[in-house]
Write a structure and sequence with these properties.
This protein folds into two domains: 180 residues; 138 residues, no CATH class. The chain is mainly α.
Length: 334
């Protein structure tokens, strides 16, 4: 049996002060969160026991982040349906907004713990963090406005609720877009026009008469398998691999590239780890470096990891020469 409307109204009104208090505490906590803790505090390689717990809890960000997204989309859909039916359907969205607000707080906290590991750096990460916190603040405010309006405590909150809900939806789109770019890359690269452009460029590519080892062979391998996580937008572990200078500089903990020394070059040792190892690169869910590509990278480091040296200027073993020819002919080189 459904609870009578008047009874539900009285129960909601009874706990109004408590809910307002909890919501304001959550707002304040989320707002000051970016100033709490230092990046690296939860780094699993160096953290103390409390930092390791933060690292553990941070992994749950990917689980909880979908809950406020779904609840917010549900609320937006209900309001749109109500608008279509011109008042004949009056959606009760307060409960869904309350769920969106509470789950968003959990997702934001877990996400910030993940940020404190230092494994995610770069402008894209900072934008995602900003949008995630703004979304959490806005969805809490939207819930409070809706809750107050439903209790008829502040009748003129209706237009403010609509404005807050639209703003929350807009921030959600921005946060989701940046999060998607961090995980899967920009969706714009799959536009039919861009795909066709790449096909045509590959088909009309001029034969390179004198190949530069790094530019035409090594960098394309890294660009295809590594730079999405270790580039200008996202520098996981503080490591960038979009230039040879950045690789020489290394990451927060490891030396990425040591010319002539495979054992000291993390870009090689991480590839050779078991695929289920946390330090294996690329991650298990990403495109992996092939055996042939690994052999080419090893050979390049063995000869000193040159930047501007041409292929014709060095003695290339027959096996490596064959691998390079296959790579270039397949269009995976430049």
């Amino acid at each position: 049996m459904d609870m009578p409307t008047n009874h539900k109204h009285s129960v909601a009104k009874k706990y109004y002060g408590l809910i307002i208090g909890i919501s304001m505490l959550a707002l304040a906590g989320v707002a000051v969160m970016p100033w709490l803790g230092e990046v690296g505090l939860a780094n699993p390689k160096t953290a103390n026991i409390s930092g390791l717990w933060l690292n553990f809890l941070g992994e749950f960000h990917f689980l909880f982040l979908h809950l406020p997204i779904g609840a917010t989309v549900l609320v937006l859909s209900m309001e749109v349906i109500g608008l279509i039916f011109r008042g004949k359907y009056k959606p009760d969205t307060a409960l869904a907004l309350g769920f969106a607000a509470s789950s968003s707080v959990i997702a934001a906290i877990c996400g910030y713990f993940l940020y404190l590991t230092g494994e995610y750096e770069g402008p894209l990460v900072e934008e995602h963090k900003r949008d995630g916190i703004l979304f959490t603040v806005m969805v809490i405010l939207t819930f409070l406005v809706k809750y107050s309006y439903d209790l008829k405590l502040i009748p003129w909150f209706k237009p403010i609720y609509i404005i807050c809900l639209i703003a929350t939806g807009a921030i959600l789109i921005s946060a989701g877009h940046h999060g998607g770019e961090m995980t899967h890359g920009s969706p714009m690269r799959s536009l039919p026009s861009k795909v066709i452009e790449k096909r045509e460029a590959r088909g009309s590519k001029e034969v390179i008469s004198d190949v530069i080892i790094y530019t035409h062979i090594v960098h394309p391998i890294l660009d295809n398998k590594c730079i999405s996580c270790h580039g200008p937008d996202k520098a996981k572990g503080g490591l960038r691999m979009d230039s040879i200078e950045a690789m020489f500089e290394g990451g927060d903990e490891e030396e990425c590239l040591v010319p002539g020394n495979l054992e000291a070059s993390f870009m090689i040792t991480s590839i050779m780890l078991p695929i289920d190892d946390d330090c294996h690169m690329p991650p298990e869910n990403k495109k992996q470096i092939t055996d042939d590509e690994l052999k080419i990278l090893k050979w390049w480091i063995d000869i000193g990891a040159p930047k501007d040296v041409k292929l014709s200027d060095v003695d290339v073993p027959e096996a490596i020469d064959t691998l390079i020819a296959t790579l270039l002919s397949s269009g995976r080189g430049k």
